[in-house]
Design brief:
The chain has 364 residues and is of the alpha+beta class. It contains eleven helices and ten strands. Strand 9 and strand 10 form a beta hairpin.
């Protein structure tokens, strides 16, 4: 600071500095200084900052990156303008293939069936409210031959062991989680996206679909064309095949939103088939007061539930499942699956408790 404002000390000179009076008076009187004096003044007043860069037109205007040209579709080798399109999916489109039974028809809809979840004008199929049927009936023999060509020769056990060791761990980046929706339509696109850079994909199943893992494996192989090479409880490895070609993969239109579930017939009747009203009431009360055979958690793994219910029916005709915090909607889905898999008759859903009756056998 003293160096920058040294001229202030020169305004009031001391008697010993009388020789510098003419220079100071010239500075205060604003007379034009000489070149040497001007250079000295600039050194005094200008701080030692770096000089500003001269702004030019190139510095002011930002250079925009060049736009990438759109890739043109590949044309066949013969001199024709036709482009080879990937094959279409030969089955009916549904939101969930493993959790919706096409044999059960709804009695009503919560939204108009004319609104397709694929969006307007994006699909050349009619939406019926639950499915989008295929226009042409598929040839099952031809589909089986094409699938076998993609799978190729059976892979040896050593190669299977290498793939399992590579993709079965929980830190695998090629993983798809299946929740309460099961094998949904958009899951197919996710599987093919992983198959771009990986031979197999790890699938982790949770929730209600784990009651019937055979059903999940069937729909995964049937809808994708792959093969299950590893299965342990709720963990699956889906192999794409030796001759899988990404350019010839099927064209999968995506669902833009989840359609509202339609209204189905009532699951629990006031009076169970084969019983009177009093007998039905007695079995419901006895089931509520009996200890639960097991407790289910939300989004858990239910692979052993069917076997435990069958074992419990060997000694009791009424069993109870404790489904606290599972949710009322999932409780009903669990009851429907147990009705078909055990088989049994659900007679009560109350306070997230499921009461099952084993039913009457033939001849009783």
């Amino acid at each position: 600071m003293l160096k920058l404002f040294s001229w202030r000390r020169a305004i009031h000179p001391s008697p010993s500095s009388s020789t510098h009076l003419p220079a100071i008076y010239r500075f205060l009187s604003h007379s034009p200084p000489s070149a040497a004096a001007a250079a000295a003044l600039e050194e005094i007043h200008d701080p030692p900052f770096s000089p500003k860069r001269a702004e030019t037109l190139q510095n002011r205007t930002k250079i925009k990156p060049a736009k990438k040209k759109d890739k043109l579709p590949k044309v066949n080798d013969n001199n024709s303008n036709t482009v080879e399109k990937p094959p279409e999916l030969p089955f009916d489109f549904m939101y969930s293939y493993s959790e919706i039974s096409p044999g059960v028809k709804p009695i009503g809809f919560r939204e108009p069936p004319k609104f397709s979840p694929f969006g307007p004008g994006r699909l050349d199929r009619n939406w019926t409210g639950t499915t989008a049927p295929a226009r042409v009936k598929p040839d099952l023999e031809k589909l089986a031959e094409e699938r076998q060509k993609v799978l190729g020769d059976p892979i040896p056990d050593e190669e299977v062991a290498e793939l399992v060791e590579k993709y079965r761990h929980s830190n695998c980046s090629r993983q798809i989680n299946l929740g309460r929706g099961g094998v949904t339509h958009n899951t197919l696109e996710d599987i093919h996206s992983h198959w771009k850079r990986a031979e197999a994909v790890r699938i982790k199943c949770l929730g209600v679909p784990t009651l019937d893992m055979d059903n999940i494996c069937f729909h995964l192989e049937d809808k994708t064309g792959g093969k299950i090479i590893y299965r342990h409880l709720n963990i699956l490895l889906l192999y794409r095949g030796r001759n899988y070609d990404l350019r010839k993969r099927p064209q999968i239109p995506l669902m833009l939103w989840k359609p509202l579930a339609p209204i189905y017939p009532k699951l629990v009747k006031n009076v169970a088939d084969g019983l009177t009203f009093e007998e039905t009431k007695e079995k419901r009360n006895r089931g509520l007061n009996s200890p639960p055979i097991m407790k289910l958690t939300r989004n858990g793994v239910y692979v052993n539930v069917v076997e435990k219910v069958r074992t419990a029916f060997e000694t009791n005709d009424v069993v109870r499942l404790d489904c606290t915090h599972v949710g009322s909607s999932d409780c009903k889905k669990i009851g429907v699956k147990l009705r078909d898999l055990v088989p049994c008759v659900p007679i009560l859903f109350k306070d997230e408790q499921i009461i099952l009756w084993k039913g009457k056998k033939e001849g009783e």
